[in-house]
Amino acid sequence: MPIIKYPFAVTLLCCLHLAEAAQSAEPFVRPPVTLVDLARTLPAGMAVPTDAEIRQSDAALHVRTGHVAERPGVTLQGPGGRWNLTGFTELTTIVKNLGKHTLTVHCAVDSDDAERATRRNCCIGSVTIPPGEETMVRVDLRSRVPEVLREKLHGMRAAPSGFLSGQRSTIDPANVVGISVYVYRPTVEHAFAVSNIRAGGSPPFPLPENVDDLFPMIDRFGQYRHKDWPGKIRSEDDLVENRKQEAAELAAAPDPQGWNRYGGWLDGPKLEATGRFRVAKWGGKWWFVDPEGCLYWSHGLVRVTWSCGYTPITGREHLFADLPPRDSPFGPFYGRSTWAISGLYQRGTETYNFSGANLLRKYGPNWPVDFADVTHRRLRSWGLNTMANCSQPAIYLQRKTPYTATVYSLDSPPEDTPGATGYVATIHDDSRVIEGTSGDWGKFPDVFDPSFKATLVREVAQHRGAAAGDPWCLGYFPGNELNWGADETTLARAVLASPADQPAKRALIGELKTKYGGIAQLNAAWKSNYGSWNALAEATTPPDPEQGREDLAAFLGNVAEEYFRQCREAVKEIDPAGLYLGCRFAGWSHGVVFRIAAKYSDVVSVNRYSETLTDLRLPDGVDKPVLIGEWHFGALDRGKFHASLRPVADQQARGEAYQRYVASALEHPLVVGTHWHQFGDQATTGRDDGENFQNGFVDVCDTPYSETIAACRRIGHRLYEVRAGRGPANR
Fold first, then answer.
1. String of DSSP letters for 375-402
2. CB 332 within 8 A of CB 706
3. pTM of the model
4. Residue range 235-239: mean pLDDT, rounded
């Protein structure tokens, strides 16, 4: 590797500008700054490879990775050990795929307190690049909420000025010690070139000079008070005018041509009509088949409700400028939180439903009926044909748009009251859980306890007289984003950390007894020293990761077998013709789990937040229809603090990203639908777990995002033409 001289003056100048901006009362728009000048020879030791060979040429860093390390690639270290990126909101770099395989590359920006093994205290951007192509990798630089504001901004994933709560995906921008470009757990070698590493952007919502002037920061409509944007609501008259304009627009906009009443392909081939939705292969691709025998591709929205914009208010009253009296017409929009998964609030915390209150202002006293009616007309006009997970029964049971039924816990609230917070598909609260487990939606259910199956059946039975037997019901989602463990032994190790009476622990020990016979044989295989089988049952310290790995990994398959079998049985017991749509995997899971899910599920559901689905692959030998249960994109140009899990530059880019994603799904032979998360934006001040994404097709004032709607129509009105390969996706 050549010896390199680095222009430290560039970085010094950048830091001086940042210091001047910090002292100035005026907002400072910073021009992009090159952080690493790859046209000049880098100093020795500035570029550190991991399981990779690197060389510098043509103003780029060329990287050829191995596939032994977990994250092979290169890490660049700042001059003097760090960069000061205070005030910047993004880091970008250009990566070209020089190899023969599709490349999914990641760029991580690390603070000085980063935990690189677990990827905490860092910001990461990712992109997938076909062979021979190059693209920009963008990393959102999210700073931690300053101590002086932490308590006042409690309960929001993101806050004004780009602050982000927590540390898993945040940094101290004044102490950036490394920029890493790498691949994650590759199975083949990759080659790529990195160039043009730059910091840029400015916070879209700069703080006032006196931070106390920030509060209250939310107006009576649920919008941020201190910034303007196109379409912001100023008065009730604006809402009424928006209603009139949209009514005229919907009346003039044609419905998709060639659809039947379910949104199936009326002009396409006719298969057997069974009166219910089913799945079948046609033309080498998987499809749903609707009750009339028409091919159907599910294009939908998650959480079609009137309560997307609810938010906890207890202890946060200082955030809101004009909460209404509880005895006013808007009093019914006060409610109580019914879940507390993230630990931010307790169950029973008072909430306020801004989106529902705005519907009363917009549609008048008959708003539930009028909103439901316009929602069905909107979906059809926009080229959508499905109300997806956690949608509102009061809307979907009008039976004008097909829907999925959520199998939720018995204590979840109905959504028929204005103050409802929206039910969440939790992990079957009434059944016993494995005490040593954790996850975003609670502990893992103990599938060996009889209460698991009994609870499932009771939960599905809630749909008798509604979804059960209903031709408009696409299928059922029991559970949501279960945590199957960081590796294939995690769940079994958690079982061994549970009490002796844990049914899953008794099942695991029973399997070990059958295999080994005596405890001495187990100790010899595991290199352990349990005094007896009872001692193993009473022990609550799990073995080391490598102790008993083969046995513990095998138990994961047994857990998956019990879980998916019982879920399927519960659905079919209550609704024999209903489709079991799987567990909504959070991304991909371990191969054995996915294979067993495919064995029992009619459709495998995956929540996949990515740019496209071009690289979607199932395990070898698995041929099963796949439903994308969640995905989205968002931006920060319309008054929101968090651009969602897949940020883009602005609303125009959001619409373009939408069309690309759906086009890639339509062209994929396994994918039978995409369900965008979600119908309406989350509250600016966050829901129970703090999520406050710009992820809706409409905002908190029920105003549609026109750029996203236009893109949805472009691809949605041509679903079947594109799916059947009869026309291009980008028209």
1. HHHHHHHHT--EE-TT--HHHHTT-SS-
2. no
3. 0.85
4. 98
